[in-house]
Amino acid sequence: MKFQTNEILNGKYTTKKTTKNVFLVPFTLLLIMFPLILMRNTNESSPNISSVKNMNNKTETKGCDIFDGNWIPYSEGPYYNNETCKWMIDEQNCMKFGRSDEEYLHWRWKPNECELPLFNATQFLNIVRGKKMAFVGDSVGRNQLQSLLCLLSQVADPEDVSHKYTSNVIYFRRYFYADYNFTLGNLWSPYFVKSVDADPNGHSYNSIMKLYVDEVDEAWSSQVEDFDIVIISAGHWFFRPLLFYEKGQLVGCNKCGMKNVTDLAHYFGYKMALRTAFRTLNNLKNFKGVTFVRTFSPSHFENGDWNKGGNCVRKKPFSKEEMKLDGYFLQTYLTQVNEFKVAQEIASNKGLKFLMLNTTEIMLLRPDGHPNNYGHPKDTNRTFYNDCVHWCLPGPVDTWNEFFLYMLNIESNSSYGSKLESVL
């Protein structure tokens, strides 16, 4: 199966337009597909993959890096399915809408030097007993939250208490596990920073957004102090046309096509937004929690653009020989890692903790795990596009929460001691 000249796996994307205001758009697949078409074409050179390995944040037990390994065949079935978990949404419910092949459900991540334990819902809930946890970012982060809800449903289902905290229950949700006094939340903010429409005629697919890269989005920053554990992630929304503002002044753009405005590419906006988000977490007076940063999640379109028949029909993972982390994806990943490393050092000096869920290269190998056209009913008058961005539930996204539990368990028993005793 040959990749096209605009193939996402090699970091090349066509330039199109995007969708509605991030707080007003309907909760549909179309919402999250539009940013993909705006990803930047580039021939820029990339660092060698070995430079990434040297930057990896390792979660170690006896010297084991759990993010260094391979996908191996696994005969057992998934933790849950669409009948046993009520928390998955239709857009990722591949079984419900007819995906019949099941090979994608029979692979597990195997670190080279240790074992990654199976997810233990009881253990997870006991670790987070009495705590509050929030996913901050875009719909791929919400994908992980819904995976976690399904994994925990083996033991307990929460009460949806979102309406007690907000009127915007699509994008800001809270779930309460009464038996564990544990709150799980979602704070929607695909840019992390303040964003508004630049077009005076209102928002459309052709409009440009203003991104105030040094001003945090208060929609999440005003709430995050309530949480003990934060998982922060985003990326795809930065590839649409954007105007970048610092100190209230226009400093450049991404794909704006305006005269006398410097095209700084999406990397600038992503870097600065991450910097602002991480600085906010490190500087909030009452935030004493642990921050997990999940790295960028690759997409896998083949045979055309997302809106021109592009799809993801593979039924098994790539090997590391078939697919390398390079080009566009490597550059985006390094942008995130560089900002993480700076924030991690600052946090350490303040007695805070930044940890990385380093999943980019791992998920690059899983083109088989996306909904494709199995995230919606077949008979409908609505226009749907193949989803090669999000992940089927159940599916490889569940591995993110296996990593997450592994890291929580280590940190709760580490020499970080008194700090984590109060948080975890």
UniProtKB/TrEMBL annotation:
Domain Trichome birefringence-like C-terminal, first and last residues per copy: 116-406
Keyword Transmembrane listed: yes
Membrane topology, from the record: Single-pass membrane protein
GO cellular component terms attached to this protein's record: Golgi apparatus; membrane
GO molecular function: O-acetyltransferase activity
TM ranges: 21-39
Main location: membrane
Domain of life assignment: Eukaryota
Keyword list, A-Z: Membrane, Signal-anchor, Transmembrane, Transmembrane helix
Domain Trichome birefringence-like N-terminal: 63-115
Compartments, as annotated in UniProt: Membrane
Entry's family note: Belongs to the PC-esterase family. TBL subfamily.
Protein name: Uncharacterized protein
Phylogenetic classification of the source organism: Eukaryota, Viridiplantae, Streptophyta, Embryophyta, Tracheophyta
